[in-house]
Amino acid sequence: MGGGENNREWEFHMRSIASGARDSNAAVDLSLLNSVKRLCELCKNEKSEESIARIYPHLNRIFQRAVASISQSQTSCGLLLLAIVQFFLDFGDAVLHDADPSLRTFFRSCLSREFADPAVAEATLYFLEKNKRKLSSAFPALLPQFFPLLLKLLAWNGEKLESIFLRVFPGLISIGSFLSLFPPLLDLPILAVALEKVEKSSGPLVGNSIASIQKSTAPEMLLALMDEAYTGSTVGDAGTDVESVDNTIALSDPLFLELLKDENDGLAERNWTSPAMTATLQAVTNAPQSDRLKQALRIAPRLLDVYFTTAIHDVNDALLCSLIPILMVRYSMLFPDKIFSYEVQKRILEFMLAAFHRSPNFVALLKKPITDRLGEAYNSLAKVSRLMTVPYEIQ
């Protein structure tokens, strides 16, 4: 490490992380976060593999201890874990560390609990933007797998993070996520409603301090909902007082389990006629819209703009052809807001027209299944007529 001043700074921060690696309670110390960041900067400037090798065991130990203590910790580990994962990404080759398990651990163990923390949410998106080239080339399946969690982050934090989210958003689209991503984009407003219902029934997802988040039962409820979705166990089995939950949201309802999940497990049918959904939409329609819901209603159409643009330019015909029947089914199954419905339906029609222009063979290929599904899905002859004119507008 060149230079006397750098040497002194290096030794100071090395002692800090060495102590943190030995003391499990130090894993969330803010001074430790500063030491991790500064050591990463020094390693980049000096390009010393020996220095990197000295730091790595300490950071790896701190990472593991921080993850293990998340559920009991009174402070957030999110920013510290992001700083350590950044080190793994930057210098993993030098120390033979595969960053993929660490990235997935951060999403599953940390972000799933701390997505409602504005500082962690913003730092996560900036981390993803900074590393998007490396993530897309070395870990292309990561963001498509965790897009439901990132949409929860956006639905909760709203328009203040929309700009940075839109820069990250194309990385969520892949062959494996393309079809399953569309319904959650369309349902961003109802996701915001579901998250607010969880907060109302179980305490704040985020409060005045990080400690209040960790003391809240809401993150645990979300994890319990995920567990129910994947294992079949019930929220009640985990000790949650289901009777205390707002009766407009049934925690065992498959639709809400689908909305609140953290990982992409494929295209799932969303039953908009379920009792829980019907009751929730009725309650939302009869009550003033929250600021978070208003923001979600504005954000969703802008996300669809990026999604549809990517679809037209980058997606193959097989996926594009598979998407169109889904669009037809969901055309009238939207959150009951007039402006939102208009904006979404306009985009769906414009996209379908562009898709038929790009691939005219879709007209013959999809005419019968689209007609059959429209007959089942819609009661409005006007909407059926409008949708069915789209294939012929290319002629």
UniProtKB/TrEMBL annotation:
Q: Which InterPro entries match?
A: AP5Z1_ARM (IPR055450), ARM-type_fold (IPR016024), TPR_AP5Z1_C (IPR056856)
Q: Name one Pfam family in it.
A: TPR_AP5Z1_C
- Residue span, AP-5 complex subunit zeta-1 C-terminal TPR domain: 273-385
Highest taxon in the source lineage: Eukaryota
Q: Where is the AP-5 complex subunit zeta-1 ARM repeats domain?
A: 30-152
Write the protein's name: AP-5 complex subunit zeta-1
Q: Which organism is it from?
A: Cuscuta campestris
